[in-house]
Design a protein that fits this description.
This protein is of the alpha/beta class. Helix content is 40%, strand content 15%. It has 11 helices and 8 strands. Strands 7-6-5-4-3-2-1-8 form an 8-stranded parallel β-sheet. Helix 7 packs across helix 8. The protein is globular, with a radius of gyration of 17 Å. The termini are close together.
Length: 257
C-alpha cells in the first residue's frame, strides 16, 4: 500500500449469498468489530435485492455499499436487468464490473466491460474493474500481455479526469474460490504491471493515484502480507467477506501502520 498517493479499499463481494434479513445482523457485528477504520475505505458489495437493506443497515457507519453488476444500457426492454442510475438512486457508491464469474458464466467480454465502465462513471458510480488470467494462460507465460489488453480495453475512451473514480482489481481466476493464492510477490508483480499500463495511458501522476486491489482468495490469514506490497492497495474479498470476524481482520490488516 502507498497511502501517500492513493486510497486503500477493502471491498467484500457477497456473490449470490445472504438474504435481506441477514444484512442487519451482519452489519451490527461488523460495526462492533471495526467501528472506525483508520486508513482504509470499507465497501460491502451485495446482491441487488439486498441493496436497500444494506444501505439502511450501514447508514450510520463509514461502510459504503456496492453492487455486484449492472447493465450497460441506461434503460429499455432489458427484462431482469438493473441500470447504473437505478443503483445510484438507491445510494450505491461502488459497482463490480467484469468479475471472472460474469465473464465465465454469462459471456461478458472486454468490450462489454468497457461499456459498463462508461455506464457506471456516467451515473457517478465508482467501478471496481476486474481483470485476471486463468491457470492455463499463466502457464503459457502470457499473463502480462493478457492483463494489459484487459486493462486497455476496459479503460478505452475513459477521460483522465474520471480515472480518480476507477478501481482495478487483479483477480487471478485460478485463485478464486480454490483456496490457492498467488504469492505476495506474484500478486504485486501483476499489480505493478497494471499500474504501468495506466501510466502509459494517463501519465505517472494519475497512475500513482489509482487504487489497485488484489482479488484472489485474500483472507484474514494472508491479508497483511499481501497488503504490505507497494502496489497492492486493498482487496476484493469473496468468502471471507461473509464472516464479520474474518472481514474485520482483513480491514485491520489494511489499517496497519
Amino acid at each position: 500500500m502507498n497511502r501517500k498517493y492513493r486510497k486503500t479499499i477493502i471491498a467484500g463481494n457477497w456473490k449470490m449469498n445472504m438474504v435481506a434479513s441477514q444484512v442487519k445482523p451482519f452489519a451490527d457485528e461488523l460495526k462492533a468489530l471495526s467501528p472506525r477504520p483508520k486508513w482504509c475505505e470499507t465497501v460491502v458489495c451485495v446482491p441487488f435485492v439486498n441493496v436497500p437493506a444494506a444501505i439502511k443497515a450501514f447508514k450510520d457507519s463509514r461502510v459504503a455499499i456496492g453492487a455486484e453488476n449492472l447493465n450497460e444500457n441506461a434503460k429499455g426492454a432489458y427484462t431482469g436487468e438493473v441500470s447504473a442510475d437505478m443503483l445510484a438512486d438507491l445510494g450505491v457508491k461502488y459497482v463490480i464490473i467484469g468479475h471472472s464469474e460474469r465473464r465465465q458464466y454469462y459471456g461478458e467480454t472486454d468490450i462489454s466491460v468497457n461499456k459498463k465502465v462508461h455506464a457506471a462513471l456516467g451515473a457517478g458510480l465508482q467501478p471496481i474493474v476486474c481483470v485476471g488470467e486463468s491457470l492455463e494462460q499463466r502457464e503459457l507465460g502470457i499473463t502480462i500481455e493478457l492483463i494489459t489488453l484487459q486493462v486497455k480495453t476496459a479503460l478505452a475512451n475513459v477521460p483522465a479526469e474520471k480515472m480518480r473514480k476507477v478501481v482495478i482489481a487483479y483477480e487471478p481466476i485460478w485463485a478464486i474460490g480454490t483456496g490457492k493464492t498467488a504469492t505476495a510477490e506474484q500478486a504485486n508483480e501483476v499489480c505493478s504491471a497494471i499500474r504501468a499500463v495506466i501510466r502509459s495511458l494517463y501519465g505517472a501522476r494519475i497512475a500513482r493515484a489509482v487504487t489497485i486491489q488484489y482479488g484472489g482468495s485474500m483472507n484474514d490469514k494472508n491479508a497483511a502480507e499481501l497488503l504490505a506490497q507497494p502496489d497492492i492497495d486493498g482487496g476484493l474479498i469473496g468468502g471471507a467477506s461473509l464472516v464479520p470476524a474474518k472481514f474485520s481482520a482483513i480491514i485491520d490488516a489494511a489499517n496497519q501502520e
